[in-house]
Amino acid sequence: MRRTRSTTHLTRWAAGTIAVAMVLAACGDDDDGASSDDLDADADLSAQSLVISNWDAYTPETLIPSFTEEFGTSVELTTHATNEEIVAKLLQSGGDGYDVAFVSAQFAEQLDDAGLLAPLDAELIPNMSKLAPEARDLPSDPGFEFSIPYTWGTTGLCYREDLVSEAPTSWNDLLQPSDDLVGKITMLQTDRWMMLPAQKSLGFSVNTTDEEELEQVADLLVAAKPNLLAFDDTTFYSRLVSGEASLVQAWDGWCNYAIAENADVRFTIPTEGSDLWADTMVILDSSQNKEAAHAFINWVLAPENHKQVAELVLYKVPNPEAMALLDPALIEQFPNLGMTPAELLEGEQLVDLGDATTRYTEIVTQVVAS
Amino acid sequence: MTSEIRSRRRRAALLEKAALLGPGAIYGAAFLLVPLGLVVVYAFMSPSRFGGVQGPATFDNVRRLAEPVYRSVIVTSVTLSAAATLIALAIGYPAAYAISRLPARWRTVAIVAVVLPFWTNFLIRMYAWIVLLNNEGLVNKVLGSLRITDDPLALMNNRPAIVLGFVYAYLPLMILPLYASIERLDPQYTEAATNLGAGPFTRFRTVVLPLTMTGVVTGSLFVFIPSLGNFIVPELLGGAKTATLGTLARDQYLKARDWPFGASVALVVLLMVVVIVGIQGRLTRRYGGTS
């Protein structure tokens, strides 16, 4: 089906190009390669269709139907489980088959480095102005050249107040736990976040590529591993709810899932500081439906829509107007939703490490195999 | 005239053979030989930055496997898989033997029961084990409420739990070939052994076991090899605290985006398979294979 669509599009495009070429015949060379730059603000969006890949359960239910209703663009939503999975797919296919993808900021950088992303046209995304000024300055993509943040947050400690003898304040409470917490702790499993507590505890950058620092990080993690219940990226919050774990390293939003089920759960950001992560939306350069893709991103950024994202996933969205629309009771129940952009910016943003990514995986293997 | 008929017949027979073998051969070539060939080639290439491979050819990936970290991963993986294989054999052999002694109708029921778990998604079955085994899980709740244990037993997030997961996952693959070879065992042989004065143990050791050795070897292969590559069990039941060949290969492809090294990990598994299948062939010849 996708093939039929792109074929008809191609035919139309070819016909258009020939017409333009005939008109401009006297002017000489017609540059085909520039097509990605001249987007048509008045394109018929109902003639376009989108394939969007997002994490499962990360898209508010009404977001896509309402978009289709508004613009007549048909949308196919596919899901991916991890950044790694979708990025591998996109890199291998050159992005073919997808129009919009949701990936974390450091992965958006990689895709851009690989030349897969379309430059964003700010004029087609007027709602860009709704985004917090702080979001525009993210080191991963200052000025929204190729990615628009969808959600953002940080990583901290999520714990059961009724099961810990003392409220944790430091990454060392996780890495060198008191006796009563041994075997009741989980840490995140994905490379960058597994390294983070040790990096911050030692006073290093979360983006360090210094070999001496990395070795210290590895040593600290190897020493911490025997005290862990597990490395866990997906079920740590239910372990906290069941009481199997008392203290877990968690993304702010995921800690909220535990808070939703158990009022004794608390979230805190260790004094040594933490990261700032952002999940972003990107448009593939191979997309034949770039106008609709821009319109979709613009649709997401409309405060009343972006607010639904925060309500569904309990993550902060970088859209002050949308955050202001949230029910105050929700923020009271999930205090970390109330963090301001300025507070978030105290965290250090994770950026793509290029070739050092391999070194991080190596260290993680070393820790897990120890 | 007759020779023409004969040659036509021969051609028809050839065509039939081609028609019967063709799909299998094409399938085998397309989905077995090509991917395996790619694994072998990739293992000797250099990684390209965004996944995939590029020149020049190199032995670096294979050499890297000799580093202590990766050597320990190989040893761990082989140990866990071997333990799972032995346990599956210890459970599977008596089970297959018992099933083969059932009345015909019940035999079918028993075999279906053995295969039944395969009808449910593997991931879901793993989560069921988590529900059972975690520190606040059913087993520990029952033990605690019966006051058999004070503190919850660490039933998962460790290496024994990985072995358990492997045994559970692949036990049917052990039982089926065992059943096939035990069922085919001619009762006259055991009767003859009894008549010649062999006790139950001698009968088993000198007659039954050798005659069903092909089932033992095949079943063991079916448990050992997929255990080497499984990365779900170490993750879910092992608490992601153990690196195996399966998790290592996956991480190299997805996280490090180092396909050549990932391929060389897969190559290790492939080589083990080749060696083991070679041994199996030899054993089968020795014991005059029945399956």
Structure description:
The complex is a heterodimer of chains A (370) and B (291). In chain A, strands 1, 2, 3, 4, 10 and 11 form a 6-stranded mixed sheet that branches. The termini of chain A are far apart. Chain A is α/β, with parallel strands linked by helices. Chain A has helices at 2-23, 63-71, 83-93, 105-113, 133-136, 172-175, 191-201, 211-224, 236-242, 252-261, 290-301, 303-313, 320-324, 328-333, 341-344, 356-369; strands at 49-55, 74-80, 100-104, 148-153, 155-160, 185-187, 230-231, 247-251, 265-268, 275-283, 348-349. Chain B is mainly α. Chain B has 13 helices and 2 strands; from the N terminus they run αββαααααααααααα. At the A-B interface, α3, β7 and α16 of A face α3 and α12 of B.
**Mean pLDDT over the full residue set of chain B:** 90
Give Rg of chain B in angstroms: 24 Å
Number of strands of chain B: 2
Oligomer: heterodimer
Alpha carbon gyration radius of chain A: 23 Å
**N-to-C SSE series of chain B?**
HEEHHHHHHHHHHHH
Distance separating the two termini of chain B: 44 Å
| Basic shape of chain A | globular
What fraction, in percent, of the residue positions of chain B are helical? over 70%
Broad structural category of chain A: alpha/beta
Brief summary:
With 370 residues, chain A is of the alpha/beta class. Helices cover 41% and strands 15% of the residues of chain A. In chain A, the strands form 2 sheets. In chain A, strands 1, 2, 3, 4, 10 and 11 form a 6-stranded mixed β-sheet that branches.
Question: Main attributes?
Answer:
heterodimer, A: 370 residues, six-stranded mixed β-sheet, five-stranded mixed β-sheet, B: mainly alpha, two-stranded antiparallel ribbon, 75% helix
